[in-house]
Please model this.
Amino acid sequence: MVKMLIKSPKKVKKNLYHPNINKLVAFYGLNPVIKFCQSCTYSNQKPNSEKEYKHKPNTKKPSLKLDKKNICNACNIQNYKSKIDWKKREDQLKKLCDKHRKKDGSYDCLVPGSGGKDSFYTSYKLKYEYGMNPLTITYAPHIYTDWGYKNFKSWIDTGFDNFLFTPNTKVHRLLTRLALENLFHPFQPFMFGQNYLTPKLAVKKFNINLVFYGESPLEYGNNDNKNSPIKDPKYYTSNNPFDTSIAGIPIIKLIKDFNLKKSDLESYLPISTKDFKKSPTEIHYLGYYIPWHPQAAYYYAVEKGGFKPSPERTPGTYSKYSSIDDKIDDLHYYTTYIKFGMGRATYDSSQEIRNDEITRQEGIKLVSQFDGEYPTRFENELFEYLSMDQKNFPRAHNLFENPIMTKKYFIKLTDKFRSPHIWMIKNGKWQLRKTIYND
Model:
C-alpha cells in the first residue's frame, strides 16, 4: 500500500484568528507588528529575496526593513539614486562592454528574460546602443498567455537569437503542485529555473563570461550592496547543489518518493560554488549603470519592439504591462496576498509612487480597490494544470490525499497559510487585521 505523503490541510484553529486576542502568532518569521512605509504602500511584511533553495515550510523569510521614520529600503534606494553620477556609471558600463565585446561578432553576453518590457529593454540597449552581441535566454513560463507569447516572438523578431528552455511538463506540474501544497508558492519552480539556469549555461555550455539582468533587487527593498553592480552569488550558487530543496522537499526525497531522476531536476538546481568560482563569468545588473524606470522600459519596448500590454487589467491590480506572460502569475500574486497581506496592487503602486507616476494617496486607493482580488480568468486551466490525474501521474496521484485541484480544495489550502497576526475572522469572514487604507 502506498503511503500518503501530501495530506489535506486540517481546519484552522479559529481561536487564533479572533478579532480581540492579546498575543498574535506570526508565521514565516514575520514581524508581528505590522507597519507601513510612509512613502509608498509597502509594509514590513514584504518578503525579500534569499537562498530560495533553502526554503522549507518552517523557514523564516527575510523581510522588508523600515528606518526610524518608517521609510522602506526601496524608497530610500530611490532617494539614493537621485544622487548618483549616472554619467560616471555609464562610463563604467562602456568599459565593461569593451572588456567583453567579441571582435568577431560572436556572442559576448547573455540576457535572460521572457521578452517582457524589462528583458527587451536590457537586450535592446546592449545590442543597439552599446554594440554588444547578446544571446537571449528564456526559461519557459508554466502556461503562456496569448499576449505573452506574442511579445516573446516580437522580442526575437527585433534581431535576437534566443535559447528557449522548456522544462519537462510533467515534472514542472508536479513541482508546482508540491510548492503550492508545502509553501503556498506556485511560482517557486519557475523562479528556480529562471535564476539558476542562466549562470549554469553561461559557465558550462556557452562559455560566455558576461550576464546582464535588468533591475537590481535593491529596487524592491532587498538588503544588497548598493555600491556593487554584481548579482550576489548566494542567489544562484550552492556548495552542494543536490543538497537543496525544491517545494520545501529535499532533492533526495523528491527522487525517492516521486520516482524522479537527477536529470529531471537539473534545470532547477543552482550551479556549484566551486564551478562558478573557477569561471571568469561575471553577472551584472544593467540597472546599476543606467537609471532604471519600469514604465519607461515599457514605453521603450512599445516604441522599439511593438510590445503589447495585456488587453485587460491583471486580476488583483490595475496595470496591464508588467509580468503578463504566464497565466500562473495571477495565482502567484494571490498566494502572496494570503501569506503576507500584500497583493499585486501593492507591488505595482509602490514602484509607481517611487517613480513619481502616482501619489501615495492614489496608491492607497488602488490598493483598497484591487488588492486581494481572487483571480478567476484562468481558474479552470490552472486547476487542471495543478491536478495530479491518474493517467498522467500514476505514482503521484496516489501520494496526494486530494490529487485533483478544485476551487473548494484551493480555498481550504488557502486558510492553512493565513498568519494570525495578519488575518482575523470577523462576522464569519476573513479580514486583514490592519490595512494601509484603514491605518
Notes: The chain has a mean pLDDT of 94. Residues 26 and 32 are 5 Å apart (CA to CA).
